[in-house]
Amino acid sequence: MNEESTERDRTGSEKDGGLFNAVCRQFDKAADLMDLDPDTRKILAATMNEVTIHFPVKMDDGRIEIFSGYRVQHNDVLGPFKGGLRYHPLVSPDEVRALAAWMTWKSAIVDIPFGGAKGGIQFDPNGYSASEIERITRRFTFALGNTIGPEYDIPAPDVNTNAQIMAWMMDTYLATVPAHQRSANVHVVTGKPVGSGGSLGRDKATGQGVVYMIEEWAKDNSFDLGRATFTLQGFGNVGSWAARLLKPFGSTMVAVEDVSGCIVNEDGIDPDELLEHVNTRGGVAGFPKARPADCDTFVCTPADIFIPAALESQITAETAPHMRVRLVAEGANGPTDPDGDAILRERGIDVIPDILCNAGGVIVSYFEWLQNKRSEFWDLEEIDEKLSRRMRDAYSRVCDTAKDCRTDWRTAAYIVALRRLARAYKDRGIFP
Ligand code: NAD
């Protein structure tokens, strides 16, 4: 640690309401059902490390602004901490804690040797220039110091962060290690630009994984994706890729919501045309081949599939009763709160839970990390094939567990993860 104002503590056991409390409720349900060993339960209910950093950055006009950034490391029994970095005004310790725990479960479900972590800086990057965002990123990375590391804790992109931000993080981290060790440390972040050690297929990985999961669900339900309609919340990395990758199946996107507004067209919204519009206009609002709508209309728009791919807590006691879909495929982390979840279950709406559905990103991050460590470069075909296998295997494990334990898919996904984590604790025991 090498920064002005930092705190490090173990506070995961405090259930202070909010998002981490929602994770605890999901966790408790699965732990009760599978009769999880009480000692393992205590360990997994807490985060391991939490770092808060308040740091100054010089703005383009010479002013100094103070930013608050967080990194929470939930668990590393299965491997190095792994998880994204988010830039958003609503980033908080509670949110980052929840997102870190979800990373632990996710890596365990898809059987990759990573633990769970997450980070964030509380600010809206839309209000800052590229050079300010670069300085904010570099200063936070420097302040994190040895909190991150290629064999210890490996960040990746999340909401409002991308390959460019990962390149700045990597470059800053490498500047702090001896010159002869730099090229051996590029796996300190994943989701880098391909020319700087990134992997082919990482940009589309999460959306691709979502589509593999929808494909599996369609097979199980003898459902023709060629006639499917879907609505999408969030047209960023995850959402835009999921929409574009569903297009070749013949599925029709009928409504999209992002931070700029909502658009609806029952005859179909072309995801490639929408992407061009978003790239030039910054959001879906004003897309000429759809009509604007309000948020309530968006929620009530009938479709076969809803893909939430924006932020948490969107499917709630307020919105879930109005949704007219057969399947929710959770591209976002935590889009459904426990009350919303119960309503979807009562209403017979299937849910592919986030910790399974959006695991494609961390899987291809793992592939990137492996390629860096081995000085290899895999082609896209190999990556897609390996991603598909891991996602579909995980789908089968969750499906079988749901049947065996007679439970919902989210609880089944937790049970798959918790069994793997409990086994590791049983093998290793607790030091001393
Ligand atoms: P992004 O920043 O690329 O896109 C976010 C999208 O959400 C944007 O279209 C934005 O306009 C929209 N959005 C933001 N606030 C909104 C609001 N209040 N209402 C409606 N739309 C809103 O982020 P992303 O990387 O696509 O991440 C989206 C979700 O997927 C997050 O929950 C993230 O944690 C999760 N996720 C991302 C990855 C990844 O690889 N990027 C992996 C797993 C899970």
Topology summary:
Blueprint lengths: L4 E5 L8 H17 L3 H7 L4 E10 L5 E12 L5 E7 L5 H17 L6 E6 L8 H15 L8 E5 L5 H13 L29 H16 L8 E5 L3 H10 L5 E7 L2 E4 L6 H11 L9 E3 L1 H6 L4 E4 L18 E3 L8 H9 L3 E3 L1 H4 L2 H15 L5 H25 L4 H20 L4
Parallel strand pairs: 4-5, 4-6, 7-8, 7-11, 11-12, 12-13
Antiparallel strand pairs: 1-2, 2-3, 3-5, 8-9, 9-10
Helix pairs in contact: 1-3, 1-14, 3-14, 4-5, 6-7, 6-12, 6-13, 12-13, 13-14
The structure holds nicotinamide-adenine-dinucleotide.
Task: Report on the architecture of this protein.
The protein has 432 residues and is α/β, with parallel strands linked by helices. It folds into 2 domains: 10-46 and 200-358 and 409-432, Rossmann fold, CATH 3.40.50.720; 47-187, 3-Layer(aba) Sandwich (Rossmann fold), CATH 3.40.50.10860. The protein is 43% helix and 17% strand. The chain has a 7-stranded mixed β-sheet with strand order 10-9-8-7-11-12-13. 51% of the residues are buried. Residues 1-16 have low confidence and may be disordered. Residues 157-160, 206, 233-239, 257-259, 309-311, 331-333, 358, 361 line the site of nicotinamide-adenine-dinucleotide.
Please give a quick description of this structure.
The protein is an alpha/beta fold. The chain has helices spanning 18-34, 38-44, 93-109, 130-144, 163-175, 205-220, 237-246, 271-281, 295-300, 338-346, 354-357, 360-374, 380-404, 409-428, and strands at 5-9, 49-58, 64-75, 81-87, 116-121, 153-157, 229-233, 252-258, 261-264, 291-293, 305-308, 327-329, 350-352.
